[in-house]
């Protein structure tokens, strides 16, 4: 298994929407390397004919009758949000003024 | 300390039902105990004094009115802070949810309330249930009541410590890789992971959805069974909930308490023969097996050759699911938002929020999961781990064709001092070596105290087939009938 580089950790952090510090990059690169070396044993189980199991319970779609039932009010749904405006979640601007 | 806090949940329920003591007195006794010791133990992140007393008053009023009460009515219970509680702070021990008060109850919490139990508050844990020592709580660690300088296990260290410190007779935990059983073992308490799908995950803040399983913590096997029977059962709001009748675990615990295991066949996992485990833990384990034999059980060795790959598989599957599940914590709908000063883009706000809100173990696992799922590594890591899951399930199926239950030590080592394993994450992960296979398989398992090593508790793990939770309770109660309930030093 390939070792994980500092640059690779930085790339993964960006993909994960995590703004990590320079110090964290150093720490995580070393620690993830140790973890990956330790879990690399999983490759010993050569098993092309083994079907994967994603879940211990067989999954099937569950449908309910299309009946209106009481749900959260708009106020309740917004109550835990860091910011709200006009009954909606408020997020930072993503377009420039001129866009 | 009030004697009421020393009673078992079953004794408390009977005393309240008889009218000898009120539910309010029982709740107050436990609140007083929390006030007296929790500064040192730090089992709780939030104590809901008013809510607890109101619930207790409600039970007393119903009893006075002659209403029929449930088997645990008026009994206090503590709830791991990863289950949503309406109007009561829920943080999953993370800064990213600091101050969040959910607008709804988890199904399990609903069932606890409907049963008339009295919720004392929310217990400490590793952040988002990621850890084996409760050292990764954003709000500081919980201390083990047996030795305040040692870890109480993780991730449900708060729930287990609350039980061991007599702050609550019952608690709810969640078990993704051993987070109920491992804290149970190192605090000398009973912790049970029910069959996956036997208890609802609705309202459980997801860490690894295919593994997370809520379950009971208690000081006795009978108490754990009573709590198990209250929270278990099909939930139509959870699509992974099994629509089957839950076995009668309370009757099984009572049967086991008679101390007769004649006709029960117990398998010892050959691969858990002691490598990597402390000698004192193995000695207590062997004594427990001998005790089970004396109770009439037949004991045989069973090989489960793929169990050795369970830990690596788990540490690829769980972070992969976590990296997906935790994407919802982006500063838009819950708790914390950082960088919202007009100078940062939405993407930067999300990244800064997650940087400020997540602790090191959570970040490490999100990055690891993203790596395991990424193109080029998916087949080698995540895909291979899912195949190992199939092989482990086959091992269990084969084993349960030969024996009724499997047993092993719950943990390889007793409670370790704080900080001794945090620098090397994989050394920390080894704490879950024996508990992880059942999570990958989905079956139930319980940890019950089986003795001491170096003056610290050791747990025996009993694993059973899927939806045969009653079997493990029977064997656990039988062992308890000979070993007894462990009593920690006075705080």
Automatic annotation (TrEMBL), chain A:
Q: Which GO terms describe its molecular function?
A: asparaginyl-tRNA synthase (glutamine-hydrolyzing) activity; glutaminyl-tRNA synthase (glutamine-hydrolyzing) activity
UniProt KW keywords: ATP-binding, Ligase, Nucleotide-binding, Protein biosynthesis
Short name of any one Pfam family annotated for the protein:
GatC
The record's Gene3D superfamilies line, in alphabetical order, gives: Glu-tRNAGln amidotransferase C subunit, N-terminal domain
Q: What class of enzyme is it?
A: ligase
Query: What reaction gets catalysed by this protein?
Result: L-aspartyl-tRNA(Asn) + L-glutamine + ATP + H2O = L-asparaginyl-tRNA(Asn) + L-glutamate + ADP + phosphate + 2 H(+); L-glutamyl-tRNA(Gln) + L-glutamine + ATP + H2O = L-glutaminyl-tRNA(Gln) + L-glutamate + ADP + phosphate + H(+)
Q: Which residue windows are coiled coil?
A: none
EC number(s) per UniProt?
6.3.5.-
- Do the record's keywords include ATP-binding? yes
Give the matching NCBIfam families.
gatC
Record note on quaternary structure:
Heterotrimer of A, B and C subunits.
Q: Which family does it belong to?
A: Belongs to the GatC family.
The task this protein performs is described as: Allows the formation of correctly charged Asn-tRNA(Asn) or Gln-tRNA(Gln) through the transamidation of misacylated Asp-tRNA(Asn) or Glu-tRNA(Gln) in organisms which lack either or both of asparaginyl-tRNA or glutaminyl-tRNA synthetases. The reaction takes place in the presence of glutamine and ATP through an activated phospho-Asp-tRNA(Asn) or phospho-Glu-tRNA(Gln).
Q: What PANTHER family does the annotation carry?
A: GLUTAMYL-TRNA(GLN) AMIDOTRANSFERASE SUBUNIT C, MITOCHONDRIAL
Name of protein: Aspartyl/glutamyl-tRNA(Asn/Gln) amidotransferase subunit C
Q: Which organism is it from?
A: Catenuloplanes nepalensis
TrEMBL record, chain B:
The yes or no answer to whether the keyword Ligase is present is: yes
Among InterPro entries, the record links this protein to: Amidase (IPR000120), Amidase_CS (IPR020556), Amidase_dom (IPR023631), AS_sf (IPR036928), GatA (IPR004412)
Task: List, alphabetically, the PROSITE patterns matched.
Answer: AMIDASES
**Pfam families per the record?**
Amidase
Top-level taxon of origin: Bacteria
Annotated GO MF terms: asparaginyl-tRNA synthase (glutamine-hydrolyzing) activity; glutaminyl-tRNA synthase (glutamine-hydrolyzing) activity
Q: Which reaction does it catalyse?
A: L-glutamyl-tRNA(Gln) + L-glutamine + ATP + H2O = L-glutaminyl-tRNA(Gln) + L-glutamate + ADP + phosphate + H(+)
| Stored PANTHER family | GLUTAMYL-TRNA(GLN) AMIDOTRANSFERASE SUBUNIT A, TRANSAMIDASE
Q: How does it assemble?
A: Heterotrimer of A, B and C subunits.
Its job:
Allows the formation of correctly charged Gln-tRNA(Gln) through the transamidation of misacylated Glu-tRNA(Gln) in organisms which lack glutaminyl-tRNA synthetase. The reaction takes place in the presence of glutamine and ATP through an activated gamma-phospho-Glu-tRNA(Gln).
Q: What is this protein called?
A: Glutamyl-tRNA(Gln) amidotransferase subunit A
The organism is Catenuloplanes nepalensis
The gene name on file is: gatA
């Amino acid at each position: 298994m390939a070792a994980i580089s500092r640059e690779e950790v930085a790339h993964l952090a960006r993909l994960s929407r995590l703004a990590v510090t320079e110090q964290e990059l150093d720490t995580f690169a070393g620690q993830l390397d140790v973890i990956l070396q330790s879990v690399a044993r999983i490759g010993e189980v050569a098993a092309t004919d083994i079907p994967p199991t994603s879940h211990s319970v067989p999954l099937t779609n569950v449908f309910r009758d299309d009946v209106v039932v009481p749900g959260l009010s708009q106020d309740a749904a917004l109550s835990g949000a860091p910011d709200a405006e006009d009954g909606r979640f408020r997020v930072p601007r993503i377009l420039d003024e001129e866009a | 300390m009030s004697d009421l806090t020393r009673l078992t949940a079953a004794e408390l329920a009977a005393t309240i039902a008889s009218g000898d003591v009120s539910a309010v007195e029982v709740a107050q006794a436990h609140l007083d105990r929390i006030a007296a010791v929790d500064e040192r133990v730090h089992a709780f992140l939030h104590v809901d004094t008013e809510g607890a007393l109101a619930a207790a008053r409600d039970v007393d009023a119903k009893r006075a009115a002659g209403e029929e009460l449930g088997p645990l009515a008026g009994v206090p219970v503590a709830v791991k802070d990863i289950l949503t509680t309406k109007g009561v702070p829920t943080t999953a021990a993370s800064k990213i949810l600091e101050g969040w008060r959910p607008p709804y109850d988890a199904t399990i919490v609903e069932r606890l309330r409907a049963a008339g139990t009295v919720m004392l508050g929310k217990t400490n844990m590793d952040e988002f249930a990621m850890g084996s020592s409760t050292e990764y709580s954003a709000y500081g660690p919980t201390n083990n009541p047996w030795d305040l300088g040692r870890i109480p296990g993780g991730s449900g260290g708060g729930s287990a410590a609350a039980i061991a410190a007599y702050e609550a007779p019952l608690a709810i935990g969640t078990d993704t890789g051993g987070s109920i059983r491992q804290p149970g073992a190192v605090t000398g308490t009973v912790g049970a992971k029910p069959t996956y799908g036997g208890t609802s995950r609705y309202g459980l803040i997801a860490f690894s959805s295919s593994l997370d399983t809520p379950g009971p913590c208690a000081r006795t096997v009978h108490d754990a069974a009573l709590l198990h029977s209250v929270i278990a059962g099909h939930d139509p709001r959870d699509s992974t909930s099994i629509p089957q009748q839950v076995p009668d675990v309370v009757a099984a615990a009572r049967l086991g308490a008679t101390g007769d295991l004649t006709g029960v066949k117990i398998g010892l996992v050959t691969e858990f023969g002691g490598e990597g485990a402390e000698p004192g833990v193995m000695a207590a384990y062997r004594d427990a097996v001998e005790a089970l034999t004396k109770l009439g059980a037949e004991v045989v060795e069973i090989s489960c050759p793929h169990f050795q790959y369970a830990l690596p598989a788990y540490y690829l599957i769980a972070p992969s699911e976590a990296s997906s599940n935790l994407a919802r914590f982006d500063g838009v709908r819950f708790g914390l938002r950082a960088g919202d000063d007009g100078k940062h883009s939405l993407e930067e706000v999300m990244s800064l929020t997650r940087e400020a809100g997540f602790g090191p173990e959570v970040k490490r696992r999100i990055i690891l999961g993203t790596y395991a799922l990424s193109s080029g590594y998916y087949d080698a890591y995540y895909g291979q781990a899912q195949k190992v899951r199939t092989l482990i399930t086959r091992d269990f199926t084969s084993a349960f064709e030969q024996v009724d239950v499997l047993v092993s030590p719950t943990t390889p080592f007793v409670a370790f001092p704080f900080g001794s394993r945090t620098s090397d994450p994989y050394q920390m992960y080894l704490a879950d070596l024996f508990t992880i296979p059942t999570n990958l398989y989905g079956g139930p398992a319980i940890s019950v105290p089986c003795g001491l090593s170096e003056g610290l508790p050791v747990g025996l793990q009993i694993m059973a087939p899927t939806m045969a939770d009653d079997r493990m309770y029977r064997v656990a109660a039988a062992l308890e009938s000979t070993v007894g309930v462990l009593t920690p030093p006075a705080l």
